[in-house]
Design a protein that fits this description.
single chain; alpha+beta; 3 domains; five-stranded antiparallel beta sheet; three-stranded antiparallel beta sheet
Length: about 400
């Protein structure tokens, strides 16, 4: 089976589902720029995954963060692993530093995080080589691909809620001296215990993720729950050297807004074209009502074209709006347009395509919203965007007679 394409036209979960239902054996390669990941399958299940060109082997870093190995022993193991060509996990077992069960546990976590990370990719080339198997890898897992798809999709929805609570990247975090909950009411999960143990008032969110013995998403989820439960709070801003040089804040936030809505409208058009074909006179007439001012850069996204709207032209157009009302007007118009397009899908195509569009939009916004969290929260991009989707869903419930 020769499967190739781009995640712009075929989503990553769809690729996984195709390989799972077809019970395929081989290796899936996904690349975007210098980033490249490979996932090995056996009869539709995931047995191995690796990040090519990663800074260092994630398995070694996981073991190091867990305090399972010293830096000296890890460096020695990595040297032997490179000289022998054997996988790092096998090398660690050969050196009698770990037993097979310990390495297998960390290997499973490594593979899951590599695969889950791909759910946030909205573009990238992929190809599947049937029959290919990972070389020099003795330790393999057996993960249900369908379970991975369900968990990855669930994480996208959960991530939207988590980001509403997580602090900006320049805020230090500390354990609350007087928790809101009584001591005998506090019950921590294992991940939450691991995260709270590295919070010391001197680390920001990126610092905590870097030091965490679990993956990025479990770390953020655990921190989210610690903040909501009143056990962790902000402790002021980090030193200036953690924040970075002075930047054009408005241009950055406008860039996020552009990426956010451009990706979402593209997904909506893909759903419509997937149901009714590439030319839909009704939709063309509908989006023509938005062809004014800066809105002209969004509704006409061409699914088949590799070149999208120009951010530079969008920037030039929106800066004609008075700066005192610029951001409010941009967000209000784009939110209205998103809401109306989602309602259009329901009215014209039904509830199935509507749900599909909402799912794709939620997936598309997870990556842009994760960028520059301090600005996203300041301008409430996450709240406004998510509220717009909820508004459309409430309208649909009324239209369909659902309670």
């Amino acid at each position: 089976m020769g499967l190739t394409g781009n995640l712009v036209t075929v989503s990553f979960p769809d690729v996984l589902q195709l390989l799972s239902t077809g019970k395929k054996t081989g290796t899936l390669s996904v690349s975007c720029g210098s980033r490249r990941k490979e996932i090995a399958f056996r009869e539709g299940n995931i047995i191995y995954a690796t990040s090519v060109n990663a800074n260092e082997d994630l398995l070694g870093n996981l073991l190091l963060k867990r305090g399972k190995i010293s830096k000296k022993d890890l460096e020695r193991a990595i040297t032997l692993h490179k000289q022998s060509g054997r996988a790092l996990g096998s090398t660690l077992i050969d050196m009698e530093l770990f037993d097979k069960e310990e390495v297998a546990d960390c290997l499973r976590m490594q593979i899951e995080e590599i695969v889950y990370n791909l759910f946030s990719w909205s573009e990238g080339e992929f190809s599947f080589a049937e029959g290919d198997a990972p070389e020099n890898v003795k330790l393999l897992v057996n993960l249900s691909t369908m379970n991975i798809i369900m968990e990855g999709t669930r994480r996208i929805d959960e991530w939207l809620e988590i980001q509403k609570v997580l602090p900006p990247n320049d805020v230090l975090l500390r354990i609350r001296l007087m928790p809101k909950n009584k001591a005998d009411e506090v019950v921590l999960s294992l991940d939450e215990f691991k995260i709270i143990s590295i919070i010391n008032g001197e680390r920001t969110l990126p610092d905590i993720i870097e030091a965490s013995p679990v993956g990025e998403f479990p770390s953020c989820r655990a921190l989210y729950k610690l903040i909501v439960s009143g056990l962790v709070e902000g402790a002021g801003k980090a030193a200036e050297d953690k924040i970075g040089p002075t930047e054009d804040v408005e241009e950055i936030i406008l860039g996020l807004i552009f990426k956010l809505y451009n990706s979402s409208f593209l997904q909506i058009r893909k759903v419509i074209e997937g149901v009714v074909g590439v030319s839909n006179p009704g939709y063309s007439r509908f989006i023509s009502s938005f062809r004014r001012g800066f809105l002209v850069f969004f509704p006409g996204c061409d699914v088949s074209s590799e070149s999208g709207p120009s951010f530079e032209k969008f920037l030039e157009e929106v800066r004609k709006i008075p700066d005192t009302v610029r951001m409010h007007r941009i967000l209000a118009m784009l939110e209205e347009m998103l809401n109306e397009q989602l309602e259009f899908i329901f009215v014209q195509l039904g509830q199935g395509p509507f749900r599909e569009a909402v799912g794709h939009v939620k997936k598309e916004i997870s990556e842009p919203l994760a960028m520059r969290r301090e600005l996203v929260k300041k301008y409430r991009l996450d709240e406004n965007f998510y509220d717009s989707i909820k508004k459309a869903e409430r309208t649909i419930k009324l239209l369909s007679g659902m309670s």
